[in-house]
Amino acid sequence: MATATTLEFEKPIVELQNQIDELKKMAEKQQLTVGDEIAPLEKRLADLRVEIYRNLSPLQRVLVARHKDRPFTLDYVRLSFTDFIELHGDRAFRDDAAIVGGWARLDGETVMIIGQQRGRDTKENLRRNFGMPHPEGYRKALRLMKLAEKFQVPVLTFIDTPGAWAGLGAEERGQSEAIARNLLEMSQLQVPVIATVIGEGGSGGALALGVADRVLMMENAVYSVITIEGCAAILWKDGKSPAMKERAASALRITAQDLYELRVIDEIVPEPPGGAHANHDETAHGLQQALMRNLEELRKYKPDKLVRRRREKYLRMGQYAE
Amino acid sequence: MAWFRKEKKPRQPRRERLEIPADVWEKCEACGHTDIREKFERNLNVCPECDYHRRIRATEYVNLLLDDGQYEELDPELRSVDPLTFPEYPQRLARATQNAGEADAIMTVTGTLGAMPLFLGVMDFAFMGGSMGSVVGEKISRMGQRSLERKYPVVLVSASGGARMQEGVLSLMQMAKTSAVLSQLAERRIPYISVLTNPTTGGVSASFAMLGDAIIAEPGAVVGFAGPRVIKQTIGQDLPEGFQTAEFLMEKGMLDAVVHRRDLKRTIGQLLRHMSGQPAAAGWTSP
Questions:
Q1: Which 158-217 residues of chain B touch chain A by CB within 8 A?
Q2: CB atoms within 10 A of CB B47
Q3: Cα three-residue angle A92-A208-A266, rounded to 5 degrees
Q4: With 0-12 CB in 10 A as exposed, 13-18 as middle and 19+ as buried, what is B230?
Q5: pLDDT class of B2 with cuts at 50, 70, 90
Q6: How far is it, in rounded angstroms, from Cα B73 to Cα B146?
Q7: Does residue A117 share a domain with residue A42?
Q8: Is A211 close to B179, i.e. CB distance below 8 A?
Q9: In this structure, what are the phi and psi dihedrals at residue A158, rounded to the nearest 5 degrees?
Q10: How many beta-carbon pairs below 8 A join chains A and B?
Q11: What is the CATH number of the domain that holds A261?
């Protein structure tokens, strides 16, 4: 399917897909059997998808991670969970639609879901601020985490944000404090916590939902201390040209494979050939299975051991010489 | 010549008489006031005219806050490495070490403040803009572990532009690491005071700097999540006068106090005594 959001490097895939569709349509119209002709084409299409997606450059991964047809938090909620009921508000200022959360069931068991939510069109993006939360969003998230802790229910977070919002109101209401508070509280939450980077994990605004016993990352997601544009602008005074963006994307080591090697994440969740946006059902099923497996392992630990292990994991992070 | 008449000598110009070489003059970055360096230094590098708090080095805060300038430095051997093989990072590190010393962007020490033993960490903006990489995180973490063993309170003086980009996501994780350490201190009821100096932004403000049992800031210090330039870019308009200053944050409820540099030591001592159940210091009265 060719959409307005076809990425440049996906064009060969789309062209071949169009050819196949065309052929099928013609065959139908003239009542011919073309199975023999189409089968090798479809095989070639599948191979092409695998081939192209295996060799994505870091910059191309960023484009895939930000793709507007990728499954967002609420898509996973719909496809991987049941019985969802959304909860709203931080009880202090307002409800921030850039973060969604609520009770849901994973394989029949109650969990608390919290995640950044991007919008698919302009109208929804304005409402959800492109998935960039204000302090009240992080405070809502913390409220829901404490609620889950109270009822001894695991917390599953979904990270999908370019970053925390940098604006006047966000600063006035303590964006820094809200993020910092979540980092501290998540490090001592007495229930299992699993965080999954589903799209773009942008800096502190992502980490504020990301301190967890297990951190999973979708195969084509990225996670970085700064946006590639910001990095290129600071270091090379050029945050716009593809060459500089590519340079920053490579230098920052932001792909799932990079983060796994740096031991910042625990598991890479495979996406179907052609990326998560090519097949929501299959992607959501893969993540659901990974979450169930990890949760089962974490449920074995008593709360104090869970917290001790989680803290120890973060205390080990970093590389230095002495 | 009459016996009472004094012989007249030619007068020397003032400058020559005082024998002040030209390079000892300093100019205030804020108001332009010019004075001899010694006068700035005697005033703790606060402008005698407009009270602007100039940026000072980590060692200067250590001397200012600890009794008799006596201290033992912790983990001075920790060095930054280049985990991502990031372009130019080794060169930048070498330059920073040459210009600012070997302590990286934070110096951690132990000593006494008003006769109370404590652990003190001071960030140094001169070292790569006080950016937090793995060494900063590890030094704070080790200081925290010592604090858990000895039950001494912790004071951190921040000055930072945020996480160190050149260590990528490992720098980001130092935010989680330092916050996890502080959660352990909180659990054991060990007091932690955060002192914010100009500037404290990004990943440092969004982690340990905003987690103090008391948070105090020097006058005029810029404190925020995003730097003023980024916000201006995001919203496409100029920022209101005084936005993100310590005084602004205080008004918005984000700080406990704005404290002049000369009162920092006394204020920290007073707070620590309250929080660790000790009597007021002898001879100290409320300002």
A1: 163, 165, 167-177, 179-184, 186-187, 202-203, 205-211
A2: 21
A3: 150
A4: middle
A5: low
A6: 13
A7: no
A8: yes
A9: -125, 120
A10: 189
A11: 3.90.226.10
User: Would you call B144 an interface residue with chain A, using a CB distance cutoff of 8 Å?
Assistant: no
Confidence (pLDDT) at A111:
98
The residues, any chain, with a CB within 8 Å of residue A287's CB and separated by 6 or more, are: A76, A80, A196, A198, A216, A218, A269
Q: Is A251 on the interface with B (CB under 8 A)?
A: yes
Q: Look at residue A322 and tell me if it is in a domain.
A: no
Q: What is the domain partition of chain B in residue ranges? A: 22-54, 55-276
Q: Is residue A81 part of a domain?
A: yes
β-bridge mates for residue A113, sequence order: A102, A156
Task: Tell me the pLDDT band of B286, cut-offs 50, 70 and 90.
Answer: low
pTM of the model as a whole: 0.93
Residues A66 and A50 placed together within one structural domain of the fold? no
- CA-nearest residue of chain A to B81? A320
For residue B244, what are its two tokens? Answer: 């993100």
Topology (CATH) of B55-276: 2-enoyl-CoA Hydratase; Chain A, domain 1 (3.90.226)
- Asked whether residue A3 carries a pLDDT value surpassing 90, the answer given is no
Q: Is residue A2 part of a domain?
A: no
Q: Residue B282: what pLDDT?
A: 75
Flag whether the ipTM exceeds 0.85: yes
Phi, psi (rounded to 5 degrees) for B37: -55, -40
The pLDDT value given to residue B18? 60
Q: What is the secondary structure of A221-272 as a DSSP string? A: -EEESS-HHHHHHHHHS-SSSHHHHHHHHHHHT-BHHHHHHTTS-SEEEP--
Q: Give domain status of residue A301, yes or no.
A: yes
Number of domains in chain A: 2
In this structure, the answer to whether residues A153 and A242 fall within a common structural domain is: yes
* CA of A172 vs chain B CAs: smallest distance (Å): 6
Residue range A23-75, pLDDT digits in tens? 888 888 888 877 788 888 889 999 998 889 888 999 999 999 999 999 999 99
Considering CB atoms only, which of A171, A207, A262 is closest to B176?
A: A207
| Residue A276: DSSP 8-state | G
Find chain A residues with C-beta within 8 A of B226's C-beta: 166, 170-171, 175
DSSP-derived 3-state class of residue A205: helix
Q: Which residue has the tokens 């009794």?
A: B67
Contact B163 A322 (CB under 8 A): no
- Of A12-21, A76-85, B86-95, least confident by mean pLDDT is A12-21
Note the pLDDT of residue B12: 62
Q: Is A243 on the interface with B (CB under 8 A)?
A: no
A2 has pLDDT over 50: no
Is B184 in Cβ contact with A174 (below 8 Å)? no
For residue A208, the SS3 value is coil
